[in-house]
């Protein structure tokens, strides 16, 4: 079935069966100045084709002489609606000589298989083609409709648009907010990106600084200055968007939101909010600024772990669209930030205090300021030999933070944290990375004060380890640590 010819050298064509499909294909090929021979059993049809100056001959495509007649043709398109005739034609052509590229029309999955078996290189199933194109039309139509709706809500803004991102915003939320702000500004509407808490992970800080993204702290603004409120990529932050004033929601996670919003676009079937925002920018035909393109591309890459996790075709086409507009030097700098002193400390402490059971590592990193250092430590510890699952916890303020990672495909670390701490803490994440926050007071039953923090940490340590190992399905040895 090897064709031995490349697309560029394909120069002569034959079309067997020239009904409406064959005719449409013939017309396009002839318009491109291609040499096309048409064979059809219908005398009248052949006459009509000749009247249009086409090279048409009358013959039953089932006949063996047809295989002879098309032997010098590079590509043969067998497009009649009679699938049995098509199959016979494929068999004859393959019997006569086997180096031609054959495209054949089927009618259903069964005839598709028969044609492939007979030797067709490409089989077209019309109902599958129509279904595909109907779905594409639906997608395009929906995007058009949603884009128009979003524009209307943004354009209805009189004072200003507040774009809220969650408490420790990740690249996806920052990028999505940046894109929404650009869309608003293209419509002459002022917008601010408002965050609560702080931009934790240094990688995210580097991202914001390098791209010059302007973020405003919630403490610095008066929400009364805004009459339209948007929340983007917000659901995963674990904070409910129960604000009755929210007008716009865009996310790739389902929301706990009970109020009517003027505009909402939630698509659990894509991997990032950046993907959704990219589709809007494309649909609006906005001239995309380099910072926005770079931010969105980074947002998609971060959320899909560089296209390694849950990547959908939509994420890939969005990334491909952004790629030529993005600043790749900046992306490189964002991706390889130097490790902060605190992250190194936390990592050192976590390595020192590690307890290993089988391939599972649990460690206590003491007291921390930057809880994102914990996630980074958990990630780095996965590189230790023989380790497939890591969990690092520490106390910051009055809360125990725990970050976990797993590269064991049989283990859903998100589920394990949920099982272990569901009654006392707030967990989030998925099968490969997850975290949990546990109020220290609830965990120990003791009120937290400056003086008893060390004691609480000790009390906490054994209990957290025990719970974790239990839900991982291994017994914790009673000795306190592995150093
Ligand atoms: Mn996201």
Return Rg in Å: 31 Å
User: Going across the major beta sheet, what is the strand order?
Assistant: 3-2-1-4-5-6
Largest sheet data:
6 strands, parallel
- For the record, give the distance between the C-alpha atoms at the N and C termini, rounded to a whole number: 63 Å
Heteromolecules bound: manganese (II) ion
Explain this structure.
Helix content is about 45%, strand content about 20%. By secondary structure, the protein is α/β, with parallel strands linked by helices. The chain folds into three domains: about 10-125, Rossmann fold (3-Layer(aba) Sandwich); about 135-335, inorganic pyrophosphatase (n-terminal core) (Alpha-Beta Complex), CATH 3.90.1640.10; about 340-470, Diaminopimelate Epimerase, Chain A, domain 1, CATH 3.10.310. The strands form three sheets. It has a six-stranded parallel β-sheet, sandwiched between helices. A six-stranded parallel β-sheet has the order 9-8-7-10-11-12. It has a six-stranded mixed β-sheet with strand order 13-14-15-16-18-17, sandwiched between helices. The radius of gyration is 31 Å and the shape is elongated. Manganese (II) ion binds near residues 172, 252 and 273.
């Amino acid at each position: 079935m090897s064709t031995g010819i490349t697309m560029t050298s394909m120069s002569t064509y034959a079309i067997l069966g020239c009904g409406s499909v064959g005719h449409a294909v013939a017309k396009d090929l002839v318009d491109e100045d291609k040499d096309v021979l048409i064979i059809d059993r219908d005398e009248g049809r052949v006459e009509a084709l000749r009247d249009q100056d086409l090279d048409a001959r009358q013959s039953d495509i089932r006949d063996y002489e047809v295989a002879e007649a098309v032997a010098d043709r590079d590509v043969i398109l067998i497009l009649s609606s009679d699938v049995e005739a098509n199959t016979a034609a494929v068999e004859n052509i393959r019997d006569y000589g086997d180096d031609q590229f054959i495209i054949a029309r089927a009618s259903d999955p069964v005839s598709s298989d028969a044609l492939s078996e007979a030797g067709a290189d490409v089989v077209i199933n019309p109902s599958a083609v129509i279904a595909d194109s109907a779905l594409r039309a639906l997608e395009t139509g929906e995007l058009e409709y949603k884009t128009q709706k979003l524009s209307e809500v943004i354009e209805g803004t009189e004072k200003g648009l507040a774009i809220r991102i969650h408490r420790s915003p990740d690249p996806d939320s920052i990028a999505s907010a940046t894109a929404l702000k650009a869309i608003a500004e293209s419509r002459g509407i002022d917008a601010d990106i408002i965050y609560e808490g702080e931009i934790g992970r240094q990688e995210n800080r580097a991202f914001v600084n390098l791209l010059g993204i302007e973020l405003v702290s919630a403490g610095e603004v008066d929400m009364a200055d805004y009459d339209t409120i948007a929340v983007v990529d917000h659901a995963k932050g674990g904070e409910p968007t129960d604000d009755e004033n929210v007008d716009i929601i865009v996310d790739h996670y389902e929301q706990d939101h009970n109020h009517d919003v003027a505009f909402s676009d939630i698509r659990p079937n894509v991997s990032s909010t950046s993907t959704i925002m990219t589709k809007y920018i494309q649909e609006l035909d906005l001239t995309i600024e380099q910072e926005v393109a770079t931010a969105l591309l980074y947002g998609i890459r971060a959320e899909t772990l560089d296209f390694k996790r849950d990547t959908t075709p939509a994420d890939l086409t969005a990334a491909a669209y952004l790629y030529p507009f993005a600043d790749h030097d900046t992306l490189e700098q964002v991706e390889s930030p130097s490790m902060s002193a605190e992250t190194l400390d936390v990592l050192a402490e976590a390595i020192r205090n590690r307890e290993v059971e089988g391939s599972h590592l649990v460690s206590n990193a003491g007291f921390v300021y930057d809880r994102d250092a914990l996630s980074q430590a958990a990630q780095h510890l996965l590189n230790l030999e023989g380790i497939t699952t890591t969990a690092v916890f520490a106390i910051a303020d009055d809360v125990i933070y725990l970050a976990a990672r797993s590269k064991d495909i049989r283990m859903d670390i998100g589920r394990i944290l949920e099982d272990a701490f569901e009654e006392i803490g707030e967990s989030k994440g998925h099968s490969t990375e997850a975290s949990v926050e546990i109020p220290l007071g609830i965990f120990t039953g003791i009120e937290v004060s400056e003086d008893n923090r060390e004691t609480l940490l000790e009390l906490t340590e054994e209990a957290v380890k025990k719970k974790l190992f239990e839900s991982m399905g291994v017994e914790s040895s009673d000795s306190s640590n592995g150093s």
